[in-house]
Amino acid sequence: MGGMLVRLRNPSREVEMPGPALVSVLLERLGINRESVLVVRNGELVPGDQRLEDTDEVEVRPVISGGA
Amino acid sequence: MKCVVCRGAAVIDVRRHNANFCGEHFVRHCGEQVRRAVEDFDMLQPEDRVLVAVSGGKDSLAVWDLLVELGYQADGLYIGLGIGEYSETSGGHARRFAESRGLTLLEVDLPGEYGFDVPTGAKAARRVPCSACGLSKRHLFDKAAVDGGYDVLVTGHNLDDEAAVLFGNTLRWDTDYLGRQYPVLPARNGFPKKVKPLVRLSERDMAAYCLIRGIDYLVDECPMAAGNRHLIYKDLLNDLEVRSPGAKADFYFSYLRNAADRFREDRDESVVGECSRCGSPSQGEVCAFCRLQERAVPVTFGGRT
Question: Do B11 and A65 touch (CB under 8 A)?
Fold first, then answer.
């Protein structure tokens, strides 16, 4: 079983997703609105057109905070 | 994607500006957006003593960092709200940031100094946690700014925060709240001047700014915010934004340009007196924070249920 390791939050979990895939495609597959997250690959911020490989460790970091 | 400034590799796309940036030029872009907000709304003077309301999250640490980088003399104030491990963690982020930059961080501990925490206060007053939390923070930040002789209190409210609040106020056509929604509130009736320098920047911008600047902020959401109405509004507005980049900024800044003045005339400017318990400005004999404390403290100490 291969694929990139993707770390998600709220709730915190890790999933394996098939690569290679563009950042924008990964977010579509995960059903996540691109305006509500940043994508970090191997510790570096990456924009929507970057290609993610099977060997990458990816964090999808939510940016929305609550409170009144 | 290439940076619109230097043509180097971009790390972030900002669709509402139809622009991509490398790390260095994104940081400059954020500084420029804050400088413009400060100038456009007459938020700060170079000689002002500034107090930044700091939570340990991305927005408050970013605004503190940006203001210091722009040359302002800014101290921070962190309030321990007693939300279990979340508060311990958030305080650690605020302290490490201040220490790493040699900045002054003041602290107030709600349970230690006032005898109750946010979960207890919310339960006792039958308020939702975000309401009890917001009330406590506003009171304690205002008091610290006035007592400390600061010229301005800065909060880290960003474009998404302001658009979500405006959306909620507009859904209810709450003219009094609409009249208060402005990036600058002047000092009046014993309240400090309050400003929001991040109104031209989104939550995504602020998280990216922290990542690029190496600011170690608290990423996890407050455990008490689940189901918060503003989170629902933010989701709705982001659905709109992804289809129509710039929609949030249009909604908010068009309001400020075309309608805010009309609602400011509707504001309830009733004469404000002093709270008989704490001396803070209050429209009643006892201010809302002291009433919250009166209800919460007996519960905390097991006296009243």
Answer: no
